[in-house]
Amino acid sequence: MKTLFSGIQPTGNIHIGNYLGAVKNWVDLQDKYACIFSVVDYHALSGNMKPEELHQNIFDATVDLLAVGIDPKKSIIFQQSKVIGHTELAWIFNCITPIGELGRMTQFKEKSDQANHQGTNTGLLMYPVLQAADILLYLAEAVPVGEDQLQHLELTRIIARKFNNKYGQFFPETKPVLSPTPRVMSLHDPSKKMSKSLGDRSYIAIRDDAETIKKKIKKAVADDKGIKNLLELYSYFGTTKKHQQMVNDYKAGKLMNSELKEELSRVVIKFLEPVQGKIKEYEKNPKKVYEILEHGARDAQKIADKNLTKINKIVGIN
Ligand code: AMP
Ligand code: TRP
């Protein structure tokens, strides 16, 4: 089986953009690949979360992933910083990555713009190098992500190629795996992707209760783009028949916004009900969650050790 790797930052609750764009694929591909999933806490350190908040978010992200269907019996799930090798390989990669490649990354430009160039830390610049190390430490070939990560995966391929050219063929070609909804748009501003950084009204978290979901969807922007976004969301949570009927009504100019919004709220709430049930169960048993993470880190470490030993030898630091 080929190896699949993906990661998510512990920056708060997972939202339906994360789920439809990436995490649903993680769940669905567990039987087809040797899967390794990571809660990437080192990446989150490049933001400015408070330590207690980060610590809680690592736990919450793990619970969310388990609740939507990541199965620790099939896949490895672990906390990035608990495996030695990610930052080590990132350093080796830093030494072959042109600075120019990092400066042109869209995510870096956006984040450093937000920080108004004053608060930009080096971690934000190196972020995609660490991401390449996450993936290549496990020689992963498949990486299920949302569209916003394609540029980072292109850089991962560039880094692998540079390494292979300098030291001889070692790393595989990494390919992104996209879902049918690689870019879920914000409810509040459908010209932007759904994101935690756009504020509460932009997204539906998988932990949102029924009232919150109804309120957010009710307030969702209902211009042309907004309706298309809501219809697309409906197609993933609702029935094909009802979706088709609403698309037809929309084309005929007789789709009632209120009907679409009520229907969408209903199916999203219905979808999230069992997920939230599982979240509650895991929260009652934090010991189990930490055991899963420890077990995952042990399994990941074995693979990391094997590969890093070879890599160190290849570059001459064995
Ligand atoms: P993050 O929360 O930034 O760590 O993202 C975790 C995963 O969700 C990544 O693979 C992202 O590409 C994906 N993702 C985040 N936001 C969206 C969105 N609005 N639509 C589709 N995928 C997304
Ligand atoms: N940068 C990714 C994001 O923001 C998270 C991430 C870190 C990741 N390392 C990874 C995704 C490795 C895929 C593979 O979503």
Task: Provide structural commentary.
The chain folds into two domains: 211 residues, Rossmann fold (3-Layer(aba) Sandwich); 85 residues, Tyrosyl-Transfer RNA Synthetase, CATH 1.10.240.10. The chain is mainly alpha-helical and 318 residues long. The strands form two sheets. Strands 1-2-3 form a three-stranded parallel beta sheet. The chain has a two-stranded parallel sheet with strand order 4-5. It starts with a strand and ends with a helix. Bound molecules: adenosine monophosphate and tryptophan. The site of tryptophan has 14 residues, from strand 1 and helix 7.
SSE pattern, N- to C-terminal:
EHEHHEHHHHEHEHHHHH
Radius of gyration, in angstroms, nearest whole number: 21 Å
How many angstroms separate the termini? 29 Å
Tell me, rounded to a whole number, the average pLDDT.
Answer: 96
CATH superfamily descriptor of the largest domain: HUPs
Q: What is the overall shape?
A: globular
List the domain count as a whole number. Answer: 2
**Number of E-type strands:** 5
Low-confidence stretches: none
Helix content: 55-70%
The third-level CATH topology of the largest domain is Rossmann fold
Q: Hetero groups bound?
A: adenosine monophosphate, tryptophan
CATH architecture of the largest domain: 3-Layer(aba) Sandwich
Task: Tell me the name of the CATH class of the largest domain.
Answer: Alpha Beta
Largest sheet: 3 strands, parallel
Number of helices: 13
Kindly name the structural category.
Answer: mainly alpha
